[in-house]
Write a structure and sequence with these properties.
mainly alpha
Length: about 80
Amino acid sequence: FDERQPYRTLMQRYLGNARDGLLIMCHPGRPDETLAGIDWVTGARSEELAYLAGDDFLADLAAANCRLVRLSSSAGR
């Protein structure tokens, strides 16, 4: 939750070091007042959602030679 760097910068570094079977865990979302009252990471959630829903994420996956797969399709590896 290092908000000193843009989420995209952190993800590009993460993807650049990816190994086969990498699992990315995040909680993107649209925070509201209720969530803000119980979760201090609301700013990061908005930034994650914007990045993951946009074209930059797809471009960064391709640049890192990564692809998305369903967790269920990778079971048993």
